[in-house]
Design goal:
The chain is of the alpha/beta class. It folds into 3 domains: about 160 residues, Adenylosuccinate Synthetase, Chain A, domain 1 (3-Layer(aba) Sandwich), CATH 3.40.440.10; about 90 residues, Adenylosuccinate Synthetase, subunit A, domain 2 (Orthogonal Bundle); about 160 residues, Adenylosuccinate Synthetase, subunit A, domain 3 (Adenylosuccinate Synthetase, Chain A, domain 3, Alpha-Beta Complex), CATH 3.90.170. The chain has 14 helices and 20 strands. The strands form 5 sheets. It has a 10-stranded mixed β-sheet, with helices on both faces. Strands 14, 16, 17 and 18 form a 4-stranded mixed β-sheet that branches. Helix 3 packs across helix 4. The protein is globular. It starts with a strand and ends with a strand.
Length: about 425
């Protein structure tokens, strides 16, 4: 039986997971998406064109069977728009499969997302895509799964949900939802999506038993995990290794290599603690050099130095066997580069142990180690050809976290990668 390769973000998302997933999927038979919804995004460069994918696994570009797992919440309208975009570009979607156990996002989820954010005293920075409310319904057992969405039960289930949600919206003086209009629209979506819906759990295990190669792509990243991230400034699903199992039906013995993806600097979108954030010209420079604007929201990302304290924590909870580092070429354009190797509290105590408690993190100051910049790593594909300054930077990271950096991104294209 083949083992499953897993790709996970190690920080706050937007680390460039799509590139390594695309690379691994070239030789994969199955590519799986396991958690989150269209609040996540991967930008894939394929045949000279850029595609912003939010739901469909990146493996679709290499012809792998691409599965949206049971842990994903699916906005049907967004999904059909992605399918249409791919088909118009000449990319086949015949290998797309959607789990019959994946939950569906409806208009009332998105409106409730907006309402909840309005009511918060401390804003989380939600994308307002309805992700959190859809997961809330899932856990409260009000959710509508794909198997219900494409069945004769859909009309009655939707009616019950809308009647229930309307009572809540009316309490807040909001317009109620029109059941007939939503049913008519979403019944049309269900008809188009139905051919893609299957029992993915047995499908995946049968593939593994027949020696097929499987790649799982994570959404968001470790420090946004609902349990292990900087709660409450997190997403609504498990974005760490456990979410891979829960979101697909895989078991622990199926997992092979676990790739943690980082950038040679760091970034964050939305609210929440961020110890190494740079609120200065250097932060602005990193943002522009790295084109740090959200795939989904287009929001400018907060940027800062790479945080090895947080990375060590991500290694511990995910069991990364390898690190993938993107944007080495970007930091090489800076005069100097810094790595955070510790946190200092108000009393002057220094620690290398990460905490997800926002109240503690907001008072922590980064302890930095400085490195020379001004090196050219752009488009280099052999480790031996890297400048010594780049190698020193890489070695310092590896020495701290005790995990090898096996893939190094040196540009935006698929070919701009060093494989060690």
């Amino acid at each position: 039986m083949k083992k499953v390769d897993v790709v996970l973000g190690a920080f706050f998302g937007d680390e460039g997971k799509g590139k390594i997933i695309d690379y691994l999927s070239t030789n994969a038979d199955l590519s799986l998406r396991c958690a989150g919804g269209n609040n996540a995004g991967h930008t894939i460069t394929f045949d000279g064109k850029k595609f912003a994918m939010h739901l469909i696994p990146s493996g679709i570009f290499s012809g792998a069977v691409s599965i949206i797992g049971n842990g994903v919440v699916v906005d049907p309208k967004v999904l059909l728009e992605e399918i249409d975009t791919l088909q118009k570009a000449g990319i086949s979607t015949k290998n797309l499969i959607i789990s019959d156990k994946a939950h569906v996002i409806f208009p009332y989820h998105k409106e409730y997302d907006v309402l909840e954010e309005e009511m918060r005293s401390n804003k989380i920075g939600t994308t307002k895509r309805g992700i959190g409310p859809a997961y809330s319904d899932k856990m409260a057992r009000f959710g509508i799964r794909m198997e219900d969405f494409i069945s004769n039960k859909f009309k009655e289930l939707l009616k019950q949900n809308i009647e229930s949600k309307n009572k809540i919206f009316e309490l807040y003086g909001k317009e109620p939802f029109d059941f007939e209009a939503i049913y008519k629209e979403y019944k049309g979506y269900a008809k188009k999506i139905k051919p893609y819906v299957k029992d993915t759990i047995n499908y995946i295990h049968s593939a593994l038993e027949n020696g097929k190669k499987v790649v799982c792509e994570g959404a968001q990243a470790a420090l946004l995990d609902i349990d292990f991230g900087t709660y409450p400034y997190v997403t609504s699903s498990n974005t760490t290794i456990g979410g891979i199992l829960n979101g697909t039906g895989l078991n622990a013995s199926n997992i092979g290599r676990v790739y943690g993806v980082i950038k040679a600097y760091s970034s964050r979108v939305g609210e929440g603690p961020y110890v190494t954030e740079l609120l200065d010209k250097t932060g602005d420079q990193i943002r522009e050099l790295g084109h740090e604007y959200g795939t989904t929201t287009k929001r400018p990302r907060r940027c800062g130095w790479l945080d090895l304290v947080a990375l060590k924590y991500a290694v511990r909870i995910n069991g990364f066997t390898d690190i993938v580092m993107n944007h080495l070429d970007t930091v090489g354009k800076l005069d100097k580069i810094k790595l955070c190797v510790g946190y200092k509290d108000k009393a002057g105590n220094i620690t290398s142990e990460y905490t997800t408690n926002p109240d503690i993190l907001k008072d922590m100051k980064p302890v930095y180690k400085e490195f020379k910049g001004n090196f050219n790593a752009e488009h280099i594909t052999k480790y031996a050809r890297l400048p010594k300054e780049a190698k020193q930077y890489i070695k310092a990271i590896e020495d701290f976290i005790k995990v090898k950096i096996s893939f190094i991104g040196t540009g935006a294209d698929r070919e701009d990668m060093i494989v060690r």
